[in-house]
User: Which sequence fits this backbone?
């Protein structure tokens, strides 16, 4: 509320600072919706990805065979690797949309609160900060991960297309491969934990009654993804996968 | 009681401000936080200094005029308004930091007073009903399901104080706007403007320069009226629904 008395103290009332826009993308809620939908698409992919990764525990034939199937998926309707390329394009679009909306919203948020309180409370922006830093870590990881195990550009061993089992073992035989991967998976876990629940709120699925269930699913998903992904380097390190 | 106060002093909206330290003596635990500031101001006036400017009106927790971030908490350590916060929540000899609401959409006017007219403009954008109201109608004339009535009452409790914005690390006004939107959107009286209300109020909120919501929940923790965090999701639901309707 604005009091008449607060105005006479000094300056005249500020004019409205902007013209309202009805556009979807120019709205903070529109950008959040893009962020939530793209996040959920990536989340769906991660669930499929972790399930596929765990096949590494059944040996090279099954794991490499699975990788081969990914390339003939959809055949004979689809040409070789078409399905895979469709998935890649959708994911690329999701990562791009997610990163752009995250960047624009974060800039706006920082501008909306330029002055800090002299008396600072601990932890008040924990979720916001972990989402931003965690998101950046995950983004950098995705780049490294593609260069490592898809293109082989930064792969430590003799990278061989079609031999993912051996490639995975090579990556997780280096200390930095393990470190980067495990740190990134912890970041993914934290990101999904707040992200899944947030996406539900953004898309209007949140309510007092459903809150516990949503948080439970978010925590469960985060835990399952992180544990499932980390199982692979741990498997290599302990010699279970060799 | 005796307190060591550190208060934000700023001459006007253009001046640089700074924290200033004051000793306040003779505080009773039964005083409200604002009465404690009155005590300080009486002292400052007697000494010929400029009293500390702060907003207040009803002093009974219903108008939304009082503000103040006290030791980093909007409205201080208890879940109530600053005018209803009593000095028994502090201990003799405490150092207490008092700051204005911080958000670029709420510029400081003087000392602890900020301009909250951005909220008024959000209300003007759609926080009303267009049906002619006249005298209070017969209560049974328009039946309202109990759950809807309760939701409307819960959201109508918002006094527009702005603590939610002050507490938010992004300076977001989503809790306030959601309280206002949900209050009218669940009622039959608010139905004619159900879509335009949420679209216009959200657009105005964005235009005022408030930040986006990252769902940290600081707002709902600070709110003296207990507007709950899921209200934001309920408004998002209304917004998405209104966009779909506007299209098709
Ligand atoms: C390119 C790398 C990524 C970046 C830079 C990033 C950044 C962010 C940021 C900053 C937020 C919160 C921003 C806000 O609400 O204002 C966020 C939310 C979210 N992220 Fe990510 N993220 C990335 C990758 C991922 C991945 C791989 C997933 C898939 C699991 C994901 C899922 C989500 C979800 C579901 C949300 C919540 C959306 C909402 O609040 O409605 N993100 N991301
Ligand atoms: S939602 Fe709560 S904190 Fe925000 S303006 Fe309303 S009463 Fe104040
Ligand atoms: S002065 Fe009215 S609510 Fe505090």
Assistant:
């Amino acid at each position: 509320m604005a009091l008449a008395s607060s105005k006479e103290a000094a300056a005249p009332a500020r004019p409205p600072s902007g013209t309202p826009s009805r556009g979807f993308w120019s709205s903070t809620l529109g950008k959040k919706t893009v962020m939530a939908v793209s996040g959920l698409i990536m989340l769906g992919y991660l669930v499929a990805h972790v399930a596929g990764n765990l096949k590494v525990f059944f040996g090279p034939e099954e794991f490499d065979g699975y990788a081969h199937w990914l390339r003939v998926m959809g055949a004979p309707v689809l040409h070789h690797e078409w399905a895979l390329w469709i998935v890649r394009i959708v994911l690329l679009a999701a990562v791009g949309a997610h990163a752009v909306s995250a960047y624009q919203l974060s800039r706006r948020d920082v501008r909306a609160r330029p002055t800090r309180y002299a008396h600072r409370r601990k932890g008040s922006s924990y979720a916001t900060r972990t989402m931003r830093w965690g998101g950046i870590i995950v983004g950098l990881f995705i780049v490294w991960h593609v260069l490592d195990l898809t293109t082989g550009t930064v792969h430590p061993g003799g990278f061989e297309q079609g031999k993912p089992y051996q490639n995975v073992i090579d990556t997780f035989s280096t200390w930095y491969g393990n470190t980067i991967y495990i740190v990134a998976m912890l970041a993914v876990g934290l990101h999904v934990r707040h992200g899944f629940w947030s996406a539900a709120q953004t898309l209007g699925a949140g309510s007092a009654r459903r809150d516990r269930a949503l948080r439970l699913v978010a925590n469960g998903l985060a835990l399952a993804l992180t544990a499932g992904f980390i199982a692979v380097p741990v498997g290599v390190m302990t010699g279970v996968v060799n | 009681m005796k307190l060591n106060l550190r208060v934000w002093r700023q001459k006007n909206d253009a001046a640089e401000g700074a924290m200033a330290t004051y000793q306040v003596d003779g505080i009773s635990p039964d005083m409200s936080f604002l009465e404690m500031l009155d005590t300080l101001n009486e002292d400052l006036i007697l000494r010929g200094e400029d009293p500390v400017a702060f907003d207040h009106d009803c002093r009974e927790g219903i108008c939304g005029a009082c503000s103040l971030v006290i030791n980093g908490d909007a409205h201080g350590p208890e879940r109530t308004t600053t005018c209803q916060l009593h000095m028994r929540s502090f201990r003799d000899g405490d150092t207490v930091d008092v700051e204005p609401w911080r958000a670029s959409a709420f510029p400081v006017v003087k000392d602890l007073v900020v301009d909250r007219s951005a909220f008024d403009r959000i209300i003007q954008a759609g926080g009303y009903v267009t049906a002619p109201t006249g005298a209070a109608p017969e209560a049974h004339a328009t039946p309202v399901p109990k759950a809807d009535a309760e939701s409307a009452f819960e959201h109508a409790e918002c006094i527009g104080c702005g603590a939610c914005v002050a507490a938010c690390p992004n300076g977001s006004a989503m809790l306030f706007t959601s309280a206002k939107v949900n209050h009218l959107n669940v009622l039959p009286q608010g139905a004619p403007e159900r879509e335009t209300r949420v679209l216009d109020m959200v657009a105005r909120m964005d235009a005022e320069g408030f930040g986006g919501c990252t769902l940290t929940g600081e707002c709902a923790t600070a709110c003296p009226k207990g507007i709950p965090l899921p209200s934001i999701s309920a408004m998002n639901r209304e917004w998405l629904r209104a966009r779909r309707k506007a299209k098709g």
The domain at 117-247 of chain B is CATH 1.10.1060.10 (Fumarate Reductase Iron-sulfur Protein; Chain B, domain 2). Chain B has a mean pLDDT of 96. The first helix of chain B runs from residue 33 to 46. Chain B touches chain A through 75 residues (CB under 8 Å).
